[in-house]
Design a protein that fits this description.
There is one protein chain. By secondary structure, the chain is of the alpha+beta class. 33% of the residues lie in helices and 30% in strands. It contains eight helices and twelve strands. The strands form four sheets. A four-stranded antiparallel sheet has the order 2-3-1-4, with no helix packed on it. It is globular.
Length: 256
């Protein structure tokens, strides 16, 4: 996919707090995903339409209300938003940002993403199994149910170990900054300042299971080291959970 030639469109939608559709979408990221998907053309219900359009979105909560950002390399049809959904909606051509990205430029960045680590360390995995059991008890599960949850996780660990595969876990508070630093550097950004804030967990439903995403908001200042890598990250998104409002990277000049 050639990102430098892409026509990048960015929409900013100020949400109407009185709209029942807004309340539904804010409560359920899967519903928000469906609303956002309706803004692009889907020929023959193309199952890869989101990927093909590089469709990304991010919900931001501000003191004056909530704003939905939507970005794509395909036309966005804001007139398809539910009636009364937006107090204000506008879109602009963000393609010039791709040319603005140059080596050595210092930028402010923002992204919501899902930091994870993959490990085969037995001690860490046992600790995670115990944590899940404790969380189940705190959530009102019985001791028997909590034990079953722990054992099911350890069974999965054993199956993966037999295949020489690790287990993907949420990054811990003491590894989140390091995770973002590694990730950002691999995308052409050298973080000079990292501010992380936890976000509500997301239940990502799959065909036959549900995965829990533990997203984090990252804000800060960075220096561009690889413009092509940054352009790709800006256009395609970063990490997993793109359909659930994660991965949209925003850049702005770092002005005093």
């Amino acid at each position: 996919m050639t990102t430098t030639a892409a026509q990048l469109t960015l929409a900013r939608i100020r949400l109407n707090p009185a709209s029942r559709h807004v309340h539904r979408d804010v409560r359920n990221p899967a519903d928000m995903h469906r609303t956002v998907m309706n803004l692009i053309d889907r020929h023959d219900q193309n199952p890869t339409a989101r990927h093909d359009a590089n469709l990304l979105h991010r919900l931001e909560h501000n003191p004056d209300g909530a704003t939905l950002l939507v970005q794509a390399t395909a036309p966005l049809h804001l007139d398809r938003l539910p009636n009364g959904y937006a107090l204000q909606a506008a879109q602009r051509d963000a393609t010039p940002v791709l040319a603005w990205i140059t080596t050595g430029r210092t930028v402010r960045y923002r992204i919501h993403t899902n930091p994870v680590t993959t490990t085969r360390n037995p001690q860490l995995l046992q600790k995670e199994a115990d944590r899940r059991a404790e969380a189940a008890i705190k959530a009102g599960k019985s001791y028997t149910e909590a034990t079953q949850i722990r054992d099911a996780f350890l069974d999965r660990v054993a199956r993966h170990a037999a295949k020489r595969r690790g287990i993907t876990l949420p990054a811990t508070p003491d590894t989140i900054t390091a995770w973002w630093t590694r990730t950002a550097e691999s995308k052409g950004l050298r973080p000079d300042l990292v501010i992380d804030s936890p976000l509500p967990k997301i239940a990502a439903r799959r065909t036959d299971s549900t995965a829990t995403l533990t997203p984090v908001a990252f804000d800060g200042i960075a220096t561009i080291t690889d413009p092509d890598a940054v352009r790709t990250a800006l256009t395609n998104g970063i990490g997993k959970g793109l359909a659930y409002g994660l991965g949209l990277l925003s850049l702005a000049p770092n002005t005093p």
